[in-house]
Structures are given as C-alpha cells and as structure tokens.
Design a protein that fits this description.
disordered C terminus, alpha+beta, four-stranded antiparallel β-sheet, 10 strands, disordered N terminus
Length: 229
C-alpha cells in the first residue's frame, strides 16, 4: 500500500482570495491583529511570502477550534563565529512601522526559496542582513545536514500555526563588521521586487551582538522569518 501523499501547498492569485480562505480557518481575532499588534506583520506580507516561495500554506488536520491551516517555512540559520569562537546573534529588529522587535537572541537567518540550498540561502542572508561588504567563509552544514523541525504559532502572524524546518550552516567571519561588542546594520533585501511592497511591514535595521555560547549552538536557531527573514 502506498503511503498517503503529502498535502499540496495552497496557492492564491489575489490578496482578497487569501483573506477569504484564512478568515474561516483561523481564530476570530487573528487577522485583525496582523499589522496592528506590535511586532506583527500584515496580510500583504504573508501574500508576498507565498508569491516568492518564502513559505507555503498547508491544510491542517487538527480538530476545531485549532486553526485549519499551517504555515510551513524552510529556514537557513547561519552560525557565524569570529576568531575567538564567539557567535554572532541578532537581538532586535527595527520595523518600518517604527516597532523595535526583540529577537531571540538568534543567529543570522533567512527563509529559503524554492531551489535554494541551505548554503545559498546562508550567503543571501549575510548579504541582505549584514551588508554587501561583509565577507564570511561558508563552512557548510556539517553534522547538522538534517533539518530540525519546530512547530509553534507564527510570531509575525498571531493565531497562524507554523512548522519550521531549520537548517544550520556554519561560517567564519572574514571581514566587514566589528568582531567584538554590539553593532547594527541596514536591511537591503526585504521587499525587493514585490509590487505593493510599500504597504507591507518590512525590517529596516538589524541589531547584533557577539556571545560566548556554552550550549549546543543549534539551540539558538530562530523559530521564525519574519519574518525570518
């Protein structure tokens, strides 16, 4: 007997079609909080993520009153270390609506797009979040080639369950940012190439720090993209 086929990702041609699908499948106050509660993103953000393949929506088999849809995201987490072995983590983000959102702390991360390897997504994360002048040496996934799965509510979209497949990629800093203390960088990639992106809530600045992590560095993997970038 063949195993059951996995559910097919849901596709939406318009923002209105996405809204009409989600309303009866999420808790009543969920959609109203998107883009209005501090640190959240709006329906247009989710539509853009779906359009470019940053995430997919899958029907859920969970019984009511649970949400009947799940947001699935593949994420590359980049564990960048300096010469003394400290780990670079993001502590906060400045959003386009003026909200300062706390993050983790978590390593550099990026939502993977169709056809990308974790290493390719890691290189894009460095370029977009740290800047074009930053150089790192991508070492690869090593022993963590298999993704780690986390399931929880989407931080950017309250009420929407999420399934994150986290791929850890190790890297070494070569040059381009301070190797000690705290610093911030300007986001250069979010919202590029999307019509209507001016109405979406985007990340404007990232705030970073170096930490001496004593535990398994994979434990610092982010739960989301928000975003995930």
């Amino acid at each position: 007997m063949r195993p059951p086929s996995p559910p097919r990702p849901l596709a939406f041609s318009t923002l209105d079609a996405l809204a009409a699908y989600l309303r009866p499948r999420l808790p009543a106050p969920a959609l109203a909080s998107w883009g209005t509660a501090p640190g959240t993103k709006n329906l247009l953000n989710l539509f853009l993520e779906l359009s470019c393949g940053d995430c997919t929506l899958l029907p859920s088999a969970a019984p009511p009153p649970a949400a009947l849809v799940v947001r699935a995201v593949h994420v590359a987490t980049v564990r960048i270390r300096n010469r003394r072995g400290a780990l670079l983590v993001e502590t906060r983000q400045l959003l386009s609506d003026g909200t300062l959102r706390r993050r983790g702390p978590r390593p550099v991360s990026e939502k993977m797009r169709p056809g990308e390897t974790p290493e390719t997504a890691a290189a894009r994360a460095v370029r977009e979040e740290l800047g074009e002048r930053v150089r790192v040496r991508i070492l690869g996934a090593g022993a963590d080639a298999e993704p780690r799965v986390e399931e929880r509510e989407s931080a950017s979209y309250p009420g929407l369950p999420a399934r994150y497949l986290l791929y850890a990629v190790d890297a070494e800093l070569v040059e381009g940012v301070p190797e000690e203390g705290e610093f911030d960088t300007e986001e250069s990639g979010e919202g590029e190439g999307h019509d209507g992106g001016g109405e979406a809530i985007t990340v404007k600045r990232h705030y970073w720090a170096w930490i001496d992590d004593q535990e398994d560095p994979s434990d610092a993997a982010p739960a989301a993209v928000a975003g995930a970038q």
